[in-house]
Amino acid sequence: MSRIATRFASLKGHGRTALIPFVTAGDPHPATTVPLMHAMVAAGADLIELGVPFSDPMADGPVIQRATERALAQGVSLHEVLSIVRAFRVGDPDTPVVLMGYLNPIEVMGYESFAAEAAAAGVDGALVVDVPPEESTDLVAALRGHGLDLVYLLAPTSTDARIRRIGEVASGFVYYVSVKGVTGAGSLDTDAVAARVETIKSLISLPVGVGFGIKDAATAARVAAVADAVIVGSALVSRIEELEQTPESIPGVIGDFLATLRVAIDAADRG
């Protein structure tokens, strides 16, 4: 059983919802990321989604696009991201780490090389935005060959047939995009989210995380009442951007914010 599956099984056994923060690796400086990852775990993060900087982040809104630009300006490549995960693992052998990004850097490295190096660094899975299930056979084979999960996005417009198809290739968990559009866009309709999560759970057996549009403790709590995981990204990255000139303060500020989400999630009514 993968670290991701083990973590979700443990959370389910304790009646808890996962908190999954997203940050871009190397933003605003590579030296900031490992201390930030440890601070997020200390604040209650159950898994970490680590963005791989890419020059054309099509699924991301302006906040995360700017984070990617800052990281790329620091020379952060996929190899550097793996080095960051390796350094994180020195102090944390347990918290699952999922890389979120796009196919091009993986293709440049090669599927088998990427899977082998990611596993050796301590990565647990990948969410590759621009790989549809119909084109994922080789990537899935490489990842599974090294014990890594492939996480997929589901959209509000995903049909039942599409959800089932993704359920055939995805592992670890699936990520339901709660609003139409890019990250950081739109407002959250939690009633609609609840209905869609119920449908997804009736079609596939994987845990369902919900992200996009979670900005504060109140929205996190509402999502926690219906989902297996609450995923928060732009709300963190925007705070990192504000602190670009004082990077030493980033772990503490982000940790404090995540702690408020953790309290709200744990208090959510799941009845």
Provide the CATH topology: TIM Barrel
Name the helix and strand elements from N-terminus to C-terminus, one letter apiece.
HEHEHHEHHEHEHEHEHEHH
Output the radius of gyration. 17 Å
Residue share in helix:
40-55%
Named at the architecture level, the CATH assignment is Alpha-Beta Barrel
Biggest sheet statistics: 8 strands, parallel, barrel
What are its keywords?
alpha/beta; eight-stranded parallel beta barrel; 271 residues; 50% helix
Please provide a brief summary of the model:
With 271 residues, this protein is of the alpha/beta class. It has helices spanning 3-13, 30-42, 62-73, 78-91, 103-109, 111-121, 137-145, 160-169, 190-203, 217-224, 234-242, 250-267; strands at residues 18-24, 48-51, 97-101, 125-128, 149-154, 174-177, 208-211, 229-232.
Notes on the structure:
This protein is an alpha/beta fold and 271 residues long. It has twelve helices and eight strands. It has one domain: TIM Barrel (Alpha-Beta Barrel), CATH 3.20.20.70. An eight-stranded parallel barrel has the order 1-2-3-4-5-6-7-8, surrounded by nine helices. α2 (30-42) packs across α4 (78-91), α3 (62-73) crosses α11 (234-242) and α4 runs parallel beside α6 (111-121). The longest helix is centred in the C-terminal third of the chain and has 18 residues, at 250-267. Mean pLDDT is 93; it is low at 181-185.
